Each structure stands twice: as C-alpha cells, then as structure tokens.
Amino acid sequence: MACYICEKNDLTEILDLGNHPPPLILLSKNELDDKSEPLFPLKLFFCENCGLVQLKDAVDPELLFRDYSYTSSASVSFKNHLHNFAKYLVNKFNLTKNDLVIDIASNDGTLLEGFLPFEIKVLGIEPSTVAQLAEQKGVSTVNDFFDESIAKTILEKWGKAKIITATNVFAHIHKLDSLMKGIKLLLEDDGSFVSENHYLKDLVEKLEYDTIYHEHLRYYGLTQLVTLFEKYGMDVYDVERISTHGGSIRVFSCKKNTHKITSNVLSLLEEEEKMGLTSKETLFSFADRVSQNKTELLSLLNQLHSEGKKVVGISAPARSCTVLNYCKIDSSLLNYITESSSLKIGKYTPGTHIPIKSDSFLNDEQPDFALLLSWHLQDSIIPKLRQNGFKGKFIIPLPTPKII
Fold first, then answer.
1. Do 50 and 6 form a contact (C-beta atoms < 8 A)?
2. What's the distance, CA 197 to chain centroid?
3. For the chain, what percent of residues have pLDDT higher than 90?
4. Are strands 369-372 and 393-396 parallel, antiparallel or unpaired?
5. Could you tell me which residues come within 8 angstroms of residue 329 by beta carbon, excluding any fewer than 6 positions away?
6. Which of 32, 115, 336, 371 could be bridged to 120 by S-S, CB 3.0 to 4.6 A?
7. CATH class for the domain made up of 64-278
C-alpha cells in the first residue's frame, strides 16, 4: 500500500503489535466460543518520503463503525470538553444563526448539541447506529460515511459551512483523498476546518502505544498535516495543543491565503524538528520502549497473581484493546473490567475475553488492585473512585507501570 499523503511506496515497518481484533466489537457470552472472531495485523509504518506514521492494513469501516459501542457523552469530562469547544468556536468566529456548522463523524451529537443554545444551524454526518441518539437531541444527522459524494448531496440541500469539525476522526477515514475533496467542497471561502487529533509527539514522548489501533490509520505530527493540506490548496493557519486523549492537537485550516498563519504553527514545527519527530530513528527508539513496557507490565501482573492478589481492570475504551491483546492480558490476570457504559456492561473484551461488569462491583468486592486502562484520565478517575469508596491500589500501565 502507498502512503496516505504523498502516495509513495517507500514505507518502513516501525512496530509490530501482532494480530488484533477491532477494538470496540465487544462480544456476548454466546459469542465467546465462536472461532471466527476477526483478527487483523496491527503494524506501524513510517513513510521515508513525507514522514507520515501510519498503518498499512485498513480494516473495512463497515466492520469498525456501523455497530459502534462508543458514545461521546459517556465521559462527563469529554462531554464538557466538546461543549466548551462549541462555545469556543462560536466566540472565536463570531458565529450567528445564519452560519452552518458541520461535524464529520458526529457520533451521538454531543459537540453539535453545544451549538444549539446559540441557534446556530448544525448538521452531523455519522455512519453508526448512535446517530439515532443525535437525532433525539435535535441534531440533524446524515447517517452515512462522509466522502466527496456525500458532500455534494449535502451541498445541494444545506449549502456551504462556515465551520467544519472533525474531532478524533480525521485519522480514521480510509479514503483520505475523497475526505479532503469533500471538506474543501463544503467549506465557505473564508470558512475553517477544525480538527482534533491524537498527537504523534505526545504518543512518542508519553509512550502512548495504546492509541495505536485499527480505527487510527494515521498518526499525525503538524509537519505531515501541513504537507497534506498544501496538497489540496489549503493552509494550516493555527494550532493548539490540548489535553484530550492523553495529548492532542487542535488544527485550524482554510483555503489558501484566506487566514493569516500564526506563530503557533511555526513554533510547533520547530519543536517537531528539534525532537526528530520525522526521523525513523526516533520511532525505532519508541518501539524499543514499547517492548520494554510489555515486559514490565506482565512481570508486575504475574507477580501479583502469584501472591494471590485479586486484580481487576477499570474501563474498557478502545485503547485498552491494544494493551490487553499486545501484552496478552486475559481473565487469568484480570478477573473482570468495570465500566459505566450500559453498551459495554455484560459483554466481553475483544480478543482477550475478559468479562465487563458494572462499576458497582469495584466497591462491592473491593479487589486488591485495579489496572486503570483509561490511565490518561487518572487525575479525574482516581479521586472519583476513592470518593465512591474503592480502597484498593491502582496500577498505572503507561508510560512506566507503577502502583499508586
């Protein structure tokens, strides 16, 4: 397969995490004995020409996204983030009721819901079944995958958008060329496309290899995003680093020469160059640290198991699938995983088949240790669980396994 951005065939393998199931296709008890659970290679590659870090194997999006167990509103902190983001955009761009905001892969409509109090026109595009939840909130939603063809249909019915957003999805869409053409087609001449993506610099520095899974086809640095937008006659004119998902970047782009490029862009590009973020040597070093983490985490869990300690997991986000399957952590090491999402409780983790139970089990059974699989949210999760009565110790898996 060629590089998603420059279309060259000069890809070098950086990291092989093995064969993994799709991260959010949870199993029912009846499906545990089904030998046909799909597994796909999870390998990270580096483009020698443009420096893009990417997966080479793309899983059918129909399999990944049609029957989806993730909702943006499930996490209170992320719901607040999206609503604050909406207010931020209203103020930054002086949006009015005459403006249209389009959100690509709008999920349950949480982001667009934040625009409704301002009486701004909104439209979501969401392929999964959770689009129904958005409609119930009053968020108009096209229940389909976004591409150039869908963009043409939207243009005829809705017109052009002042703002197009894509939060944690811009790296997911396989047909990148069609995606970019669709965005440019729908964007007003002075409009802005605003994306939020997990950030390659954070991934490498914080050893966030759990953000590598089949939904994430590309792992962006700002350098590669500038190259991508230039290819389609667009500028990256501003950028902000934000804390969501363990470290992300919010990128503002526009049609060529319609917005002044800020110093933020140049500063971050310089940071990436100094770090060697477009160097495969930096990425090979990252891969070595990933292997070391697996050894250390398994050693800790096996030690606790040999001492007769009861260990469970907390939360089953998509990123947990990578850690569990790569490290081969199953129900012999974690008795169960607790969750607050009704879409996940009663199911089993893909690949490792660990039962998912209600958060209430944590307080009722008081296990000795809890592996925090949403470790990037530890500052908000741990105080809440303590307040709810959990007395055990926490295991933080990344970047270095530790007990707190």
1. yes
2. 7
3. 82
4. parallel
5. 297, 298, 301, 323, 352, 354, 371
6. 115
7. alpha beta
Q: For residue 253, list its beta bridge partners.
A: 193, 236
pTM of this structure: 0.91
Distance CA 129, CA 218 (A): 24
Beta bridge pairs of residue 165: 103, 194
Q: 196, 248 in Cβ contact below 8 A?
A: yes
Smallest Cα–Cα separation from 123: which of 175, 165, 66, 168?
165
By three-state DSSP, how is residue 259 classified? coil
Where does CATH 3.40.50.720 sit in the chain? 282-403
The band of 246, judged by pLDDT with boundaries at 50, 70 and 90, is confident
Q: Band of the pLDDT at 273, cuts 50, 70, 90?
A: very high
Residue type, 243: S
Residues of the chain with CATH 3.40.50.150: 64-278
Instruction: Give Cα 62 distance to the centre of its chain.
Output: 17
Q: What is the DSSP letter of 355?
A: B
Residue 69 has pLDDT above 60, yes or no: no
pLDDT at 116 over 60: yes
Half-sphere exposure of 372 (CA within 13 A, CB side): 25
* CB atoms closer than 10 angstroms to residue 77: 12
Kind plus residue range of the DSSP H or E element containing 388: helix 378-388
Token pair recorded at residue 135 = 């409609």
Q: Residue 393 and residue 378: Cα distance in Å, rounded?
A: 13
Could you tell me what percent of the chain has a pLDDT over 70?
Answer: 98
How many CA atoms lie within 13 Å of 307's alpha carbon, on the beta-carbon side?
11
For residues 122 and 113, give the distance between their C-alpha atoms in angstroms, rounded to a whole number.
8
In angstroms and rounded to an integer, the radius of gyration of the C-alpha atoms of the chain is: 21
CA distance 18 to 387: 38
CA distance 51 to 113: 37
CB half-sphere exposure, 333, CA atoms < 13 A: 17
Q: Tell the CATH superfamily of the 282-403 domain.
A: NAD(P)-binding Rossmann-like Domain (3.40.50.720)
The Cα 388–Cα 362 span in angstroms is 10
Confidence at 70, pLDDT banded by 50, 70, 90: low
Peptide bond into 355 cis (omega under 30): no
Q: What is the rounded average pLDDT for all residues in the chain? A: 93
The Cα-based distances of 210 to 194, 207, 240, 256 in angstroms read 25, 8, 23, 35
